[in-house]
Amino acid sequence: MSYPTFLHTFAEQLPGLAVAHRSGEWPDPQLVVFNDEVGAALGITRENICDLFHADGHAQAYSGHQFGNFVPLLGDGRTLLVGELRADRHLCGEASGAPLLYDVHLKGSGPTDFSRGGDGRAVLGPMLREYLISESLHALGVPSSRSLAVFTTGETVMRGRPQPGAVLVRVTPHHLRVGTLQFAAISGPEILRDTVRYASHRILAQPSDNELENARELLHQAVLSQARLVAQWMRFGFVHGVMNTDNTTLSGYSIDFGPCAFMDTFDPQTVFSSIDQGGRYAYGQQPAIAGWNLARMAETLLPFIGMESAREEIDSFASHYRAAWLAEMGQAVGVDPDNAGAEKLLDALPELLTRHTADLTTFLRSLSDGTTQQKFPWARDWCTTRDMCGAVPPHNPVYIPRNHLVEEALLHAERGDLSHFHRLFAATTAPFDRLDGSEDLEQPAPQDAAPYITYCGT
Q: Binding of ATP: at which residues (predicted)?
């Protein structure tokens, strides 16, 4: 079976940010799930993907602000960049003019120079969880990394208890993070210049020969794309959970889903991550954190663009986010934000949902189904105002990866039964269409369920 030829542009052009490694030797790799759509775009099949099971590649170096504290050297502790492939279509929600070169990553591939004492391994549950979450976000129209496959390794890995070892094959437009620029900036002006040049050609539709123009455009596009991305997260109740600068991409797509989760009951203070004790990355904090991370990006580019230009771009984030949020919520509610009274209507919704502890997804879908006043009588006045704002049919999902359903599916999968996973995956990757016999997948967790807590298993 022929196999596509990998490029290695990152390692070749940025050798100071790449360390050669070979993936682990696994006793019995077995394919668990495979994404035919992503595979077809890259020329990878169920038959030839086995060539990835023993791959040479590179671990990438980067820095990062983790919970506000700068760590000069982080890097890929258990992932491997196998290389880059050209696709025949855009895969991750990019703009139409974006390059068609994609990174192929193995997650859980074994220890690297950046493992910091860890074993570099991963286990089946968290890898299936990232596969499900990333593909569900994509189906909702949210820019996200894609998942190509998950396979078990034949190893047993200790994560509190013995669990089956597994590897996720992840596909992204690149793995260039704010933390990548931070590492380049502290590594010297030549490495920073090379990194900006490389990022420009991986991200910009029409990179310039002028370094200043490229740096300014990289920051500008990051501001725009992060504003749109976080507005989409807010619309669908997605809580990323670990918005460190090393998890913030330069072109605004979702990546690294360790402690993420979707919100049921609407509450701006919602936190799922076990390590976010102060609520830094709570649902309602996500826009502000995105702006903070972009300011850290701007700092790395000061040698090119200067303080005034950097400040101008960062100061524009709030207005870009506001416009993106109004557009997203306008579509969810079914009003044009430019209509008289629409902005006030949209601004009133979060407080209303919080006061009545409403389930966000159920409420928004009821607007699509025309059942809001029946299901949520407390929203009658708000609905009347909405109608006065020129309401049109809104577009909202029936299904999201609800946390109790995800955990149930993963528990069965670890025991060898993938039927629950496949059923949930089918619903959440066609989220706008109601499926017969799937009413249970629409329901939030029982009211007496324990608070949901997530861990950085991925």
A: 75, 77-78, 107, 119-120, 170, 177, 256
88 labelled as ligand-binding?
Answer: no
Annotated binding residue 403: no
**Helix or strand run (H / E) with residue 342:** helix 342-355
Report how far residue 37's alpha carbon sits from residue 40's, in angstroms, rounded to the nearest whole number.
Answer: 5
Is 48 labelled as part of a ligand binding site?
Answer: no
For residue 79, the SS3 value is strand
Q: What is the DSSP string of 115-128?
A: -TT---B-BHHHHH
Are 343 and 249 in contact by the 8 Å Cβ rule? The answer is no
| Cα distances (Å, whole numbers) of residue 36 to 33, 146, 409 | 10, 12, 21
Give SS3 for 390.
Answer: coil
Residue 109 structure tokens? 């591939």
CB neighbours of 27 closer than 8 A, spacing ≥ 6? 153, 154, 155
Separation between Cα atoms, residue 198 and residue 200, nearest integer Å: 5
Question: Does the CA dihedral 403-226-314-325 come out positive or negative?
Answer: negative
Spot the catalytic one: 76, 103, 194, 246: 246
Residue 246 annotated to the active site: yes
| Chain segment 42-63, per-residue pLDDT in tens | 999 999 998 887 788 999 999 9
- In this predicted model, what pLDDT tens digit does every residue of 410-437 receive, in sequence order? 999 999 999 999 999 999 999 999 999 9
